[in-house]
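Data availability excerpt. The first of two example chains:
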Amino acid sequence: MLSLKDLSYLTALDELRHFGKAAAACYVSQPTLSGQLKKLEHQLGVTLIERGSKKVIFTHVGLEIAQRARAMVLQAQEMEELARASKTPLAGRLRLAIIPSLAPYLMAKTGSTVNMLLPELNIELHELETHELLRQLRSGNIDIGILVLPQPQPGLRSLSLWQEQLWLGVGHNHEWAQKTQVTRTELAGADLILLKEGHCLADQAQQLCQIKSQSQAFRGASLETLRYMVSAGNGATLVPQLSMEAWLSHGDDKIIYMPITEPKQAREIGFLARSGSAYWPCVEALHNAMASVLPDVSEGTQNVPLVL
């Protein structure tokens, strides 16, 4: 009978492609991991990993078995989660990942309500960019993700939370500083300072508003960086509503915000979890708690789909 522990060693090595890192991730020594993998090869009667190379190279059958092993290990974890959740569905540790352009602002807005309504839920918060969030969600390293909802993902289930309106932020000396609104047509081809590639907000600006980045010389690592750039008079940028509200509440009056109209622009924020996850009661509970304090969606706001 194959050991789930040995299969988990195999999936860790497949993911990390480094014996030392895989051993550390599995909390065992490198010789232990190597020995167990050799035992697994003996049980299966095949070679899983090429020997004599400085790199970790899987054989063709090794890759196939690692893929199946990943599914088996994940199913075993989900069975354990289901058993635990059936006893106390809204208690214990929850590994929640949120994209960086949303995490601090969403938690500042909803965190106290979540803590009050779900006092026994111990949330372990991670900030992950979209591609990494999806990867870790599929691998079982996180339980739930909150992000700009992508196109339907195989094996993952979504629940929409909120339509977050996007605003244009400009400095007081900007040529558009006297405007009260800006249309999507006006934004087409405009020079904006954006987040670095990999952030979904940058992808939205370029792909969906047909916006050209001011230059490739500067890309902000965070919305806070863009905030200081615009405050200092360096161009304009897209600002999600929760970020704008947070900055205004802290007395920031160096940026002028205007809505983007014809049509209004928004991003669909929602939850993602594995389709068979035992954490769906937590998803629904978090949804209800967060939705109760998020601003109402304005009529006529159009979703902006994110192309990943």
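And the second chain:
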Amino acid sequence: MHLAFRAASALACLTLVAAGTMTPARAASAPPFEGTVWIGPNIITPASPSDLLSTESVGRGIRTTYDRRSGWVTQNSYLFISRFNGSKPTEIIVNPEFGSPDAATTQARFFARVLGQLPRSCRTQIDALWIHSGNEVFGGGNRSILIHSDFAIESPEFLEEILLHECAHTSLDWDSGGSVEQTKWAEQVARDPGFISTYAIDNPMREDVAESFVPYLAWKLGTASGYTAAQLDAISQQIPNRLAYLDSLALNLTPLIADESTTTPTASISGVEVPTARKLRPGSACKKTFIGNTTTTVKFGTLTCRRVGSAYRWQRLSLAALSASS
């Protein structure tokens, strides 16, 4: 559930047993990444839109939170309420160690804006942010996200990706009552070539969903994620069934990816964005003049116009087989 990793691990081979655990059974493809938070920093950036509407101080109050430096602590914390488009309000609990209402307000407003940048389906079960000082790793679950501000300062370019990982723990993990069903997820694990990261394979029951969610979003965004074509291809080849399952949940990815009903799909021709005549999906027809151009949809991610036999079709980037089955 946490991001204390970056160590190499031996590759295990997986199957499913009745108890719901994973044990060696067959040769599997080696994970292409060590930890998916660190693949690229541009899925969400400071310039990305946020659903945050307001953050208001509500004074101070006694709250119990977890602090990695000392364990569970009960303190007279600085309290704030943040409100968002598309999701419920969230309580921001700031450690009194920050020393003043102004310093606490700075922390609360900063992290509330980043919280508003996360997909709405990833915020459904976040009741609170716990903000402490200290250079300790973040955490998710308990209907909250644990933040240590010095760790955020140490890796600012990856802050949003770290919070994507933690919000997946909080709102998607089955142990937290999230959207992902354990049995159905296990079925996809058994069908996929392997795990996406060494962190996931080292902690298959605890980390696989969160480790898969960040590359899933990159796969949905395509090259707009800042990932290279090789990285996107590695994702689509390693966990195609996990990707398809997450797609089947119809997660609301606003504001990262706008709702399809509010946007007009377009494709770029010679640098000019041109509205398409029909709703796009893998396998649907595209014009010959669109060859090589791409467009991003909410449901199917980034599609590329390609020639298929004598026809021209929209296909997922490096995912022809998966597109055909969608």
